[in-house]
Write a structure and sequence with these properties.
Elements lengths: L8 H11 L12 E3 L3 E4 L4 E9 L3 E3 L9 E3 L2 E2 L2 E9 L6 E9 L2 E9 L4 E3 L2 H6 L5 E13 L4 E6 L2 E8 L19 E11 L2 E13 L3 E7 L4 E2 L4 E9 L6 E3 L8 E6 L6 E6 L7 E10 L5 E10 L4 E2 L2 H6 L6 E13 L4 E6 L2 E8 L4 H4 L7 E11 L2 E13 L1 E3 L2 H5 L4 E17 L4 E6 L2 E9 L12 H5 L6 E11 L2 E13 L3
Parallel strand pairs: 2-9, 10-11, 13-15, 17-23, 24-25, 27-29, 30-31, 33-35
Antiparallel strand pairs: 1-3, 3-7, 4-6, 4-8, 5-7, 8-9, 11-12, 11-14, 12-13, 14-15, 16-18, 18-21, 19-22, 20-21, 22-23, 25-26, 25-28, 26-27, 28-29, 31-32, 31-34, 32-33, 34-35
């Protein structure tokens, strides 16, 4: 069943324009102003432009732009710039939310195309439905991630979606606590759908109705609800106001390692779970607690039981072949490029393959550690996926080796040290051993012998062989290689070289 509200775009835009004139209007930031924070596009397709006046360089995050919307330009310098928004026809109407960043300031831009349409839907229908469409959905609050902006999870019998931002009763942000929402409450919300890193979200939702739950999770033992690798018990304390008892459901996929051993009665029942020893990676399971009122209406609460696991040391190829999940993997490789230094979004390669790492540590950690392309890192994180592309998420920096970028002359002046790594770039003047990649390398400052150029970090045995032939590297090509300084028969050399990159001779 669908519930649709049709509002003329022109009326909506006029109302939004009135709202934008309030005292807290984000269009009046000190170093960043826009002529309008709302952009209307005709339902039959078209373009609309706004002006951006910035005190320094600014940019729009391209990851926020939906496939149907074209924005140009995505960045600019200090001064005035026109930004154009265009889209093809949209029979159902749609919306999007973008942000312009200028220094420490951030301006929200709301995109509206055509008629505003709201559809009543289940979580499954939201997940399967188109982006930018506005949905009204009812479900249970399963967990709350952020109490300032109101980021939380909503679940019904068909699935679960993430709520990214919740408006208060006056339609304002950053006032989530005023709503009094708790885990277990049954809530009806309304907001537009978006996709972020593969996660379905409803953004800045309006709360239509709240029905307080008769059952809640009050606490855990241990407090973080996490069992050790060797197994043990986790207890969950509940409050149940219905007087009709509770039932407990454990997901089928977790029943081989998680079981319920006892339930005490009363208004504060305690449920004890037994967690089996774990010889794999980290794992978790969300268990459901249910009760009913005197009219048979069902209320639920949930708890996530966690268990630490062993960290699996893997090559990058093995990591890429692993399933998406909570298992922690340890990989070591060379940073081949930096996509976003602020968050530590990088590409890492070893001898077996390359993976994208979506963030190392917290914001700023990568830069604080002084990491750069060419450095060797050991990371621990989960196998994740975005738009079908594998990646590591939640990465923690376990170890790093800073690689010094030097000329050959500078390299030759360094002392022998098996712990200090260098990155040299030069042209190949001679190939002494094509199997292991022993070559002479020359730049404008000198010549050095490279004893081995292997396919990547961690290569051993036969995996070290035939890189030059595989990549078609020949005399005259430019080669960048990582290695340590050593001396053989009084001749300095770069030992145990690791391939970084190459360019064919012109």
């Amino acid at each position: 069943m669908k519930l649709k509200y049709f509002i003329l775009s022109t009326i909506a835009l006029c109302m939004l324009a009135l709202v934008s004139c309030s005292d807290d209007d984000a269009t009046l930031l000190k170093g960043l102003q826009v002529t309008s924070s709302y952009v209307g596009i005709d339902i039959n397709g078209g373009s609309t432009a706004i002006g951006v006046n910035a005190s320094q360089s600014w940019s729009i995050d391209p990851e926020e732009i939906p496939d149907w919307l074209t924005v140009s330009p995505l960045s600019g310098n200090a001064g005035q710039t026109g930004v154009n928004f265009s889209a093809p026809a949209a029979p159902d109407g749609r919306t999007a939310v973008l942000h312009i960043t200028c220094g420490d300031e951030r301006q929200t831009i709301n995109i509206l195309q055509g008629l505003s349409t709201v559809s009543e839907a289940t979580c499954a229908e939201v997940i399967a439905g188109p982006e930018s469409k506005t949905y009204r959905v009812t479900g249970t609050v399963t967990s709350i991630a952020n109490t300032t902006y109101g980021n939380w999870y909503l679940r019904d019998e068909t699935g679960e979606i993430y709520i990214y931002g919740t408006l208060d009763a006056a339609g304002k942000t950053k006032n989530f606590l005023s709503l009094g929402l708790e885990v277990g409450d049954i809530v009806t919300v309304e907001g537009p759908k978006t996709l972020y890193n593969g996660t379905v979200e409803l953004v800045d939702v309006t709360v239509i109705n709240i029905q307080k739950s008769l059952i809640k999770v009050e606490g855990y033992d241990p407090e973080n609800a996490t069992a050790p690798v060797g197994g043990g018990n986790v207890t969950v304390t509940l409050s149940c106001k219905s007087g009709n008892g509770i039932s407990v459901e454990i997901p089928e996929e977790a029943q081989n390692w998680l079981s319920m051993t006892s339930v005490t009665g009363g208004e504060n029942p305690v449920v004890t779970f037994r967690v089996a020893p774990n010889d794999e990676g980290d794992r978790s399971a969300t268990v459901m607690f249910k009760t009913t009122d005197d009219n048979g209406k069902e209320y639920t609460a949930s708890a996530t039981i966690l268990q630490n696991g062993s960290v699996v040391t893997a090559t990058i190829a093995e990591f890429l072949e692993a399933p998406v999940g909570d298992t922690q993997y340890r990989i070591t490789g060379v940073i081949t490029s930096v996509a976003k230094a602020e968050y530590g979004n990088v590409y890492v390669r070893d001898w077996s393959g390359e993976t994208y790492v979506y963030g190392i540590g917290s914001k700023g950690d990568f830069e604080a550690a002084g990491l750069k392309a060419g450095d060797v890192v050991t990371l621990v994180g989960r196998r994740a996926e975005y738009n079908g592309n594998p990646q590591m998420s939640g990465a923690v920096l376990e170890d790093s080796k800073s690689v010094r970028i030097v000329t050959i002359d500078e390299f030759l002046d360094q002392p022998d040290d098996p712990e200090v790594y260098y990155l040299l770039t030069g042209n190949i003047t001679e190939i002494a051993n094509p199997t292991y990649g022993n070559v002479y390398l020359e730049d404008a400052t000198g010549t050095v012998y490279v004893y081995g150029c292997y396919p990547g970090w961690g290569a051993t045995g036969d995996n070290r062989k035939n890189l030059l032939e595989t990549l078609g590297i020949e005399v005259g090509d430019e080669l960048s290689v990582i290695g340590v300084k050593s001396t053989y028969k009084e001749s300095p050399q770069l030992a145990n070289g690791i391939y970084f990159s190459h360019k064919k001779a012109q």
